[in-house]
Predict the structure of Dihydrodipicolinate synthase family protein.
Amino acid sequence: MYTGTIVPLITPLDEDRRVAEKSVARLVDHIRHDVTALMPALTSGEGWRLTEQQWHDIVAHTVRHSHGLPVLAGIQLPDTASVIERARTAAGLGAAAVVVTTPFGASVTQEDILGHYRALRAATPVPVFLYNEEALSGNRIEYETLQRVCELPGIVGIKESSGDPAFTRRMAAAGTGIPVFEGWENLLAEATGVDGFIGPLANLEPALCNDMLADPTAARQQEINTVCERHGVFRDDWYRWVKKELRIRGVIDSDTICEEPS
């Protein structure tokens, strides 16, 4: 079972917006002793903006330089068929699991969401990490639906980014046997009972994230919030500021971000 701090890796790019393998290797080496898994190409990795080649390269490079850590490949595509195709590619690249949102759109129903994950599990052998959010997909998984999805074989974790700590606590206490991870740094003290944390701060300060999980006090939460404010983690374009700080520290060579998708 997955526990502890999992890092949603930023995607290091060179000035031509190619994935920079040497920077990927240094980034993994920078954090690998304090994290339990690597999660490339999710939102902090600008996953919804990556070209197919960029997505392929960040997953492949992460697997190559993982030092044995499991690689959980993010997939942020709008429809089930596209997700299935990319999940098969991730399995071929050596990913231990894929991290998948709901289909995109405000009109997506809870039955659509259940059908989406059923189809994914039926079509691919790779295990699935659920990503419950709303900012990108335009919808979220309701409690009863999330429980039903957790009954499917091969569901191995939940990145719970609803922003509602009461919902997160309820899901953590549901007894599904599926580990639940808080996805917001500022809610860690309120998200009691979770199995771990997945958030962009882990690219910079994974040991501090571990300290927060071990000692989720108000004082520790304030420390987390202060560090996040300092490094831009709470900004809308947090990935830009995390990259800047990693470049300043000499971990990556460039803080180039992805272009907006055309």
